[in-house]
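Possible race condition, two jobs.
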Amino acid sequence: MVARVLGIESELNAIPSNKSATSYPLQARVSASGWVDSIPEGEIRFIEFTGERHDGAYVLEIMGDSMSPKYLPGDLVLMVPVWETTDLQPGDDIAVHCDGNEHEGKATFKKIVDVRDGVLILEPINKSFKALAVECGHVSRAARAVSIQRRVGR
């Protein structure tokens, strides 16, 4: 419309983008501060992320501040499932869901600092929180963070 007012003729109405948006389901909220019951959201919502498409990916909303300043409460994080715990690497930011131990049915979000003797050592970015150790055999689901959305004003 501005082009028309200025007398400029153009077939270009928008700046082209080589990134397409994909909608992913918001699966649940996960605590970055400790272990919480991993209860799915009541109503399915979809969140759009631009960039590379990830099959089987889903979105988690961060609760707590143990992963701040990189991840803040309310951030939406695109997670890609990791099917084998042997594929988890130090430096990965991951969500893990546990079964068969004292954390039965609970999940957390942390950074992997080490994997040794079948145990994941998970550490928060915020050093006022403590590290956690989880036996790989008790991890029923794991997913790696690949992208983040933060609301304006955060």
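Job #2 (started ~2 s after job #1):
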Amino acid sequence: MQARPKVLFISSWYPTSLKPTEGNFVQQHLCAAQIIADVALVHVVLSTSHQETTHETRQVPYEEHVVYIPKNERFIIGLFVNYFKIFKTYWNLATQTQIGKPDLIHANVLYPIGAFHCFSPNTGLATMNTPNRNQVAGSGSFCAGLPNVPI
């Protein structure tokens, strides 16, 4: 029997308590993918209603990690601080899921987190970006030179 592939989904959009319908297509995609693969999701949210970092984990029937990070609202500096925290959180959680080292990293919604694999060291992992309809209109690869699995 062939081993099930391990797929890590990283997503900029995903339903949360703050936005229950945002990225519901990602949730449906995960439900379908978990039939043939071991899947885990990591989603990081900037929140003005959270005073400290909050990490929620569920099995729904896949492993789900949603992290709320307090949004830094300082002019200009806050933008850099926020994105540093987001990327650091994705990086840390990507290696701590129950599926272990994934065979494929699937980035739903290219910006901002689809850039995650562009800034991470070349790990030899296959990556795939599923763009939303607004990103399809552009031409060329977002991360030219890095391996992307065609969709």
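The chain has one domain: 6-136.
Logs attached separately.
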